[in-house]
């Protein structure tokens, strides 16, 4: 716990058996109260290893996509009483050791969400990020900052921490089940006026670390541009989109899950 707040780490997993143990071992277990893994119909022994490690494990019978996996993770974290939820990829691309710092920024009640940024500092290229990914990251971030009227170093990190309140408020069920889910969720947080902080986070690119290919990267990039344009059009009152509209599609709280 941190400041009497229950901390959960969620691990959206797909074929992560080779890196799960190392990721789990380096979690700050002194402050983490709950670890939840959702296995998205992996072809390896991810779920079996997670259960052996004592992780609360949820199995999808069919692959629901990266966004669909996160929806299951967040719903489970809320249902199990989390006050702060840290989303970490179990592929060991991001260091688990920063979970304490990220959760602390929320426990201080100064931020509603915290991002582990690969761009702050000089960690991205040094960690092996492909140049085309770095360039596209910087381009998309520039465009998105302009369209949503915010200023972040990047919108595309997979290392994030969220307060219970923000997870309860955002209409996450209206977001995509694909990779653009991350970007839509962050755009929602900005749209609804939540406070977002960033912390510099080193990253590692290696064969076992999950990474989408060039074709999927292009699809993701187009999705990011679409999300940003929808944000701006709704702010201008020209159109309305489900991902930015009210409480429809929001996650249920632990109390609501038992009613």
Offer a quick outline of the entry.
By secondary structure, this protein is α/β, with parallel strands linked by helices. It has helices spanning 20-25, 46-52, 65-79, 99-107, 123-126, 131-148, 164-169, 181-191, 214-235; strands spanning 7-13, 34-39, 56-59, 84-87, 113-117, 160-163, 196-200.
Name of the top-level CATH class:
Alpha Beta
Uncertain spans: none
Class computed from helices, strands and strand pairing = alpha/beta
Gross morphology is globular
CATH-defined architecture: Alpha-Beta Complex
Helix content: 25-40%
Biggest sheet character = 7 strands, mixed
Separation, N- and C-terminal Cα atoms:
27 Å
Instruction: Report the β-strand fraction as a percent range.
Output: 5-15%
Given the structure, what is the number of helices? 9
Essential attributes:
7 strands; alpha/beta; 9 helices; globular; 259 residues
Question: Mind explaining what this structure looks like?
Answer:
- There is one protein chain.
- With 259 residues, this protein is α/β, with parallel strands linked by helices.
- The protein has one domain (7-258): Spore Coat Polysaccharide Biosynthesis Protein SpsA, Chain A.
- The protein is built from nine helices and seven strands.
